[in-house]
Write a structure and sequence with these properties.
511 residues, alpha/beta, FAD/NAD(P)-binding domain, 2 domains, 8-stranded mixed beta sheet
Length: 511
């Protein structure tokens, strides 16, 4: 740890006026952004702003409104421990209910005065002389002592590089940008991708469309879904005895934590789950040729494990075709396959996921040396504890590199990082720290440790997944038990950072 004296300058002149200054600028109002805002208010910190490009809170749960959208983590675990919901209507919540939960959080904690809706981040640059961030949005600007990127990995839809796709003459949209005004009744529809979104919306629209072609690159592992409605008795019990809901949450957490053993310790432990998945496939798909197309050729867990009781039956409908040949190009309204065959369609729906290892916000953030995060991380994105990055003073990335999970709830990881951010703010106040920046050697050592755990894990067993970056490194998944991540983030370790001390650290201007 090195110490430099510095006096930060609140606010900045811009276009003839002073832009408002806040202590913390948070980008995004999903679970991470709202959770941090609640923590700030609980700590008595009111000088913060939430920057949101949409017109409502919720992040991915506000944007993803496609038919059948549902969480694949049990409801009791997919909510904040400090804000339990005893009234979940299902054991696995659907999008409208999760979105309602987040909107209710924002209202109950009086966050709306801090939120600027319709403000899309366009640039964030570190001002070394003034020791603060200059934040530009589509509708305004701020300076901030700290910037927290809480946009998350599932916020920027990925569009495949298919020749002619952008010139498709019919209707084209991504599942994360569902066009509810477009009537699919009787249409010829192509669905590209067979991931977590597609297996939910395909069964919902299969009866409505005239003809559907589902284009599959890789067959995923599908396990039976155990979702069910919660009973009135359960909801009454949780409202009357919150400790009962906490006990259920704890049980769900530890049962899912045990899944990790097959992912990182002994892949043979996945054999039981694979047997269940294969039996599920045999029961629901009688046609041997179709079953062969739907049989995964990789170890369960290498890609995201999916849950559905409706996906396979939807593919057996007479108006649905599963296509496993690669798409060569799109001409007009025609999809041309590698074998030369063609499919005429009216609408293309992309179920092709998100920019996870290459988040677009990385091109908007410029650090101390003037380079964007994308430029400085051209060889692969990495961070210290998945939260702080060398070259970016006073900057946090929530749900950053190697914080993703294949077995448990991301809300647990988010809460761990929220505690880390809040402890950093506490340390800054107590020690009059103006800026912090993770030391390059600390970040490098941490990431070497993370990558040393990857060989032998199920995620590196040979499949192509969105967990891996362009170089084949797993920069997405946390390769350990989540309680160990919670332990590592319990305190802000100043020894890993370059610190600058100075007076006037705490900003007072309103957002």
């Amino acid at each position: 740890m090195s110490v430099v004296e510095l006096t930060p300058t609140p606010g900045a002149e811009q276009d003839g006026g002073t832009v408002p200054h806040v202590r913390v600028a948070i980008v995004g109002t999903g679970f991470a952004g709202l959770g941090l805002a609640i923590c700030l208010k609980d700590a008595g910190i009111e000088d913060f702003v939430l920057i949101e490009r949409a017109e409502d809170v919720g992040g991915t749960w506000q944007a993803n409104t496609y038919p059948g959208c549902q969480c694949d983590v049990p409801s009791h675990l997919y909510s904040f421990s400090f804000a339990p919901n005893p009234s979940w209507s299902r054991t696995y919540s659907r999008q409208p209910e999760i979105w309602s939960y987040l909107r209710d959080l924002a209202a109950r904690h009086d966050l709306h005065p801090h939120i600027r809706f319709g403000h899309e981040l366009t640039a964030a640059a570190w001002d070394e002389e003034r020791a603060h961030w200059s934040v530009q949005t589509s509708r305004g600007a701020w300076t901030a002592q700290l910037v927290v990127d809480a946009t998350g990995p599932l916020s920027h839809p990925a569009v495949p590089a298919i020749r002619g796709l952008r010139r498709f003459e019919g209707k084209l949209f991504h599942s994360a940008e569902w066009d509810h005004d477009h009537d699919l009744t009787g249409e010829r529809v192509a669905v590209i991708g067979t991931g977590a979104s597609s297996i939910q919306f395909v069964p919902r629209i299969a009866e409505q469309v005239g003809r559907m072609h589902v284009f599959q690159r890789t067959a995923p592992w599908i396990l039976p879904h155990t979702d069910r409605p919660t009973t009135r008795l359960e909801r009454r019990l949780y409202r009357a005895l919150p400790v009962a809901q906490r006990a259920v949450r704890s049980g769900v957490y530890w049962s899912r934590e045990s899944f990790l053993l097959g992912f990182i310790k002994d892949q043979r432990l996945m054999a039981g789950a694979e047997k269940i998945a294969r039996a599920h496939l045999r029961r629901q798909i009688r046609d041997p040729a179709l079953r062969q197309k739907l049989t995964p050729q990789f170890r369960l867990g290498c890609k995201r494990v999916l849950l559905s009781n409706e996906w396979y039956p939807a593919l057996t409908r007479p108006n649905v075709e599963l296509v496993s040949d690669a798409i060569r190009a799109i001409r007009g309204r025609t999809i041309v396959l590698a074998d030369g065959s063609e499919r005429e369609v009216d609408t293309i729906i992309l179920g092709t996921g998100f920019h996870v290892t290459d988040p677009p916000t990385a091109r908007l953030v410029r650090g101390r040396d003037g380079r964007t995060l994308a430029e400085s991380m051209a060889d692969g994105i990495q961070a210290y504890l998945g939260a702080t990055m060398s070259g970016l003073p006073n900057f946090f990335k929530l749900i950053g590199p190697n914080t993703g999970l294949g077995h448990n709830s991301m809300i647990f990881m988010i809460e761990s990082q929220l505690r880390y951010v809040m402890d950093a703010l506490r340390v800054m106040d107590e020690q009059q720290i103006a800026t912090f920046e993770v030391r390059p050697e600390a970040m490098a050592a941490y990431n070497e440790q993370i990558q040393s755990k990857m060989p032998g894990t199920v995620w590196m067993s040979g499949c192509a997944s969105w967990y891996l970056d362009a170089a084949g490194r797993n920069t997405t998944i946390w390769p350990d038990f989540t309680w160990r991540f919670r332990h590592r983030t319990r305190r802000f370790n100043t020894r890993a950072y370059e610190l600058r001390h100075g007076s006037g650290v705490r900003a007072t201007a309103a957002a």
